[in-house]
Amino acid sequence: MESYLFPFDSLICMLLGISFTVWFTLLLVFIIVPAIFGVSFGIRRLYMKSLIKLFEWATLRMDNGETLKRSLPPTSYLQHHHNPPVSLEQEIHEMRRGGAEPEFDMSDIFYFCRRGVESIVDDEVTKRFTAEELESWNLLTRSNYNFHHISTRLTALWGVGVLIRYGFLLPLRVTLAFTGVGLLVVLTSIVGLFPNGRMKNYLSDKVHLMCYRICVRSLTAIITYHDSENKPKNGGICVANHTSPIDVIILASDGCYAMVGQVHGGLMGVIQRAMVKACPHIWFERSEVKDRHLVAKRLSDHVADTSKLPILIFPEGTCINNTSVMMFKKGSFEIGCTVYPVAIKYDPRFGDAFWNSSTFGMVNYLLHMMSSWAIVCSVWYLPPMSRMEGEDAVQFANRVKAAIARKGGLADLLWDGGLKRGKVKEVFKEEQQKLYSKVLVGSSEDRSRS
Amino acid sequence: MGSRASSLLREEDIEEIKKQTGFSHSQITRLYSRFHSLDKGENGALSREDFQRIPELAINPLGDRIINAFFPEGEDQVNFRGFMRTLAHFRPVEDNEKNKDPTSGEPLNSRTNKLFFAFRLYDLDRDDKISRDELLQVLRMMVGVNISDEQLGSIADRTIQEADTNGDMCISFSEFTKVLEKVDVEQKMSIRFLH
Lengths: 450, 195
What we know:
heterodimer; A: 7-stranded mixed beta sheet; 13 helices; disordered C terminus; B: mainly alpha; Recoverin, domain 1; two-stranded antiparallel ribbon
């Protein structure tokens, strides 16, 4: 028995050794070396094309299924009125009985009533904080809402998909992620030992780019950059719409930015401290975040120094589900330097990148990301914008927001992203009340005049 | 195989709701999906907080009254049936329905029922009369702090004077209906649901 096991044992060891070596060589050749030099073999794009064909086939199969037709959670529940928005005053006057203008009419209530029930049936805000619904199924159960058992073939395909994603892709990606982050920490610390100067900046740029590129590959992110001639330059601020923490990796793998953020503990803290050794980033203590003047001052100082990298900021302040752009916080627009807007649009067919922080924690989210098929997105660099004469920070912010929404094909909303967690401010209700009061009181003034 | 919203709604339920409310099959499944997305607690019923989470409703001066209309007396949960029953009041009146013989009682979206829904918004204590006090309270909700008590009081008095025919200083439902007989209630209290 024993002598039988012996050669078997060493055979297993040998096989393991060989597969390990092969694995690492492949990793090095196909992923790490290209990341260093910023080139690509095009493997990911090929992968993406084959996946698209696969999803289309799967959807076709499901549509031919004998069971219930898939009813999609719709994106809208009301017929869209394409009439121009009518003010409260106009609508109420239209609604009244006519004849002598009364101050108050019992039918006024119909206006508020109908508007209220319309917002119960469909509203613009609540649907922005949950993941976008898809038209075709991408073989991920988590994005499937009405799956009924259609055919064994499809189920088998889904099963194979699970095996591939969790058994092969996930470990590969986790290894890469650890490599990327590890290299980032180690190399930036090494670069930090150099004396300040051009050499240090050059090395720091290279190191940051390389590590972010490895991270990009660890998510199998397939990114298309448009209009790279508008890439942000030193002494400016780069603003972008926010969908997930991955946005940072996507932008930073194509250009060098100074990051802004709160100081964290744990692993994030280690990364932050290492990064700041190589080039200046702006990390705030928790207490400093509340002090708006301090924040504004640090940002302006950084921007004034043209040897420092452009700052990367997400003015929405929270993650939105990539179907719309919500209110931009005006802080970054008050600084008075050039703003470089960037629009990021994810393709939801391959994996939903939206981070619903009330449902998932960070680790859970990253696991979801790494076990999706891929992350496909497009990045548009818009031409730089500056505050115009007579424009205040809020108007400037809205102008930039509109440009980003238009380019990325997203809805431009005035609502605050803070509504994800908090209640809407009373002041908006008071505005509605004020408008209605004008309707009542305004007509009595006219009456007293006549 | 994960199945969410629509498999929790059975065909029998859909048929019953269809009969009661007049919505089509696809409208019911769509609205179920909306109901489900509002139901954050995932317990098959909506609470007042679930409604208040809708920003456009929260800024509506009569938001709380409208939310109240969904909840039957003394309850704080509304299930999907109750949700649909209330929404049915806002279904547009179709031409072929206007001439239908009301054998199964009046449809929920008839003119009378629409008017009654609005009447209920004013009638805070549900005693089928709108008293001066109730009218004042609702007016106060609609105008906020922008109009003085006296002015609001005189507006209320004038309104009751105009409408009150039997001299009891309150507006009953029939007086309410009379006052609004020239208003196109069917159009003003209807929402264009997607088919």
